[in-house]
Design goal:
6-stranded parallel beta sheet; 9 helices; Rossmann fold; 2 domains; 25% strand; alpha/beta; 340 residues; 7-stranded mixed beta sheet
Length: 340
């Protein structure tokens, strides 16, 4: 075990892009687990757009990361000390480890550590069986409510959440259209993830292209982007459409540039459609069933997922920013220490 614990703490709130200067690498003593707690060595960190929102000093579903606090992040760790009989030294767990080498995790409560099931790639618990896969599952099935024969449009289709949402749509019998930001990503979306079509939002007129791809309208829209993409989708919704608002990454999630409201929202009235936001925490009690279903689909080869892996704790700030620069394909991950 290392003698000190490296920690990336927030020292200045970013107003736009996240940069290394907004954090400071500090060292501290390795913490001791209390009664019922475990100490883990961080192996993997996962990155999601919502983490950028945690850096804004605004009220949200979670409190903002405080100045001087270790940056919050989910991750995978190996137990190195345990004061809980349910966890043994060497166990691989998932939890809110933060940007640091070592973290103390509780074994109870909503932020508790959970063991990675035997036979599962640990880092898959941060993607297909973690936040992104579960968000895609519940957002599409519960909020989007797709039916066989529906046309499903997914923005951010090459991302970790959008790519899974689209594949679930295919499994449920939908025609699936995606949008992504490069020819290479569009090729992956159709050639690997199996979408029926994918448009490049950087080079194509989205409203016109959607009209060509879905001449009878979009029945379900799973939105990770917001902004002009949301407006293009609203221009092309079918009667009774359902829109699941998952994210608005086009805004950058900065306090100064919140996701713009769609100017054509009256389409919801005209087409008697529904637009609904959701949080994954709303479905906490059903995670186990969802993971079981996702694992079945992965095992059958009906869902594939991509991973973008970076290396080194010191690169965490720039790794988070990769999401907003469109540099990642699939789940954004960072290896902190040698995998177990």
């Amino acid at each position: 075990m290392a003698e000190r614990n490296r920690q990336l703490v927030l020292v200045d709130r970013p107003k736009s892009a996240v940069e290394a200067r907004h954090f400071e690498m500090r060292t501290a003593d390795i913490p001791e687990p209390g009664a019922g707690e475990i100490l883990v060595r961080t192996v993997w960190l996962g990155f999601d757009p919502t983490q950028r929102g945690w850096l804004n000093d605004v009220k949200s579903y979670m409190p903002p990361v405080a100045i001087g606090e270790v940056m919050r992040s989910t991750g995978i760790g190996q137990v190195v000390a345990s004061n809980n009989p349910e966890f043994a030294v060497g166990d691989i767990v998932q939890g809110m480890v933060g940007w640091q080498d070592y973290a103390v995790l509780a074994a109870k409560g909503p932020m508790r550590a959970t063991k990675v099931p035997a036979g599962i790639d640990p880092k898959a618990m941060l993607s297909i069986y973690g936040t992104t896969g579960l968000t895609a599952y519940f957002g599409l099935i519960d909020i989007g409510q797709p039916k066989a024969g529906d046309v499903l449009f997914v923005s951010g289709a090459a991302g970790s959440t959008g790519s899974i949402a689209g594949q679930i749509g295919k499994i449920l019998g939908c025609t699936v259209i995606g949008s992504a930001g490069s020819p290479e990503k569009c090729d992956w979306v159709t050639g690997v993830a199996g979408f029926d079509a994918c448009m490049n939002y950087r080079t194509e007129n989205q409203s016109r292209r959607l009209r060509e791809l879905a001449p009878k309208g979009i029945n379900v829209f799973f939105d990770n982007v917001g902004g002009p993409t949301l407006e293009a989708a609203l221009d092309n919704i079918a009667l009774g459409a359902r829109i699941a608002l998952c994210g608005g990454i086009s805004s950058g999630y900065t306090a100064e540039s919140l996701p713009p409201g769609p100017k054509n929202y009256m389409q919801l009235v005209i087409m008697r459609a529904r637009m609904e936001g959701f949080l994954l925490l709303d479905f906490y009690t059903r995670f186990g069933d969802a993971i079981t279903q996702l694992a079945q689909w992965v095992g059958e080869g009906r869902i594939v997922y991509a991973e973008d892996i970076q290396e080194g704790l010191e690169k965490a700030p720039e790794t988070l920013n990769r999401l907003f620069a469109g540099q990642n394909l699939g789940k954004q991950l960072l290896r902190v220490s040698d995998p177990v």
